[in-house]
Amino acid sequence: MEANGFIVSFKKRLVLGLSLLFCSLLYAQDGKQTEKSVVIDHNSADLNWGGCPEFMPAGCNIAVLHGDPAKTNSDILFKVPANSDIPLHWHNSAERMILISGEMEVTYEGEDTRTLKEGSYAYGPAQKPHTAKCKDKGPCVLFIAFEDPVDAFAGKGK
Predict the structure, then answer these.
(1) Sign of the alpha-carbon torsion through 63, 148, 134, 40
(2) What pLDDT is attached to residue 10?
(3) Which of 64, 65, 103, 121 is placed for a possible disulfide with 75 were both Cys, Cβ 3.0 to 4.6 Å?
């Protein structure tokens, strides 16, 4: 009887183990484990540069690095020519930014103007109006991580 009980117990454990393995494989096929990493240079010919909203300066371009800009958590590159003024605007999302090239002045409503140099990090609160100016040290390329869908609205906003 003991041997028979051992076999039944072993079969139950085997079925349970195989079921768990199968479920974990299904999850890995469908979950974030299948998401691929991204490594790309800001000068890469593989970047797909598109236009900016109409109120932005001539020569403004955006390239999506990761994610879907219509959904949460996407990363973009924002590029404007040297000596460009970026008019007062705001975003629904907070922005986490690093200036990749150029030199840029940024002024958030009610705050002093700050100068970003290559490698500078900046955080912009959601819905806080701001202006910027790309100085004369070449085009400004800014990495921006958006928490919410990517958007930009001219003026003071809400």
Answers:
(1) negative
(2) 52
(3) 65
Q: Within this chain, do residues 90 and 144 fall inside the same structural domain, yes or no?
A: yes
Determine how β-strand 95-101 pairs with β-strand 140-146: antiparallel
Please give the residue range of the domain that contains residue 109: 49-154
| Cα–Cα distance, 20 to 53 (Å, whole number) | 49
Number of neighbours of residue 101 by Cβ within 10 angstroms: 17
Least confident of 30-44, 56-70, 84-98: 30-44
Residues 111, 156, 125: CA angle, nearest 5 degrees: 50
Domain total in the chain:
2
Radius of gyration of the chain, Cα coordinates, nearest whole angstrom: 24
Q: Which two tokens stand for residue 109?
A: 């409503």
First to last CA, the chain: 77
* E runs forming strands in 91-154: 95-101, 103-108, 114-117, 121-124, 130-134, 140-146, 153-154
Q: Is the pLDDT of residue 86 over 90?
A: yes
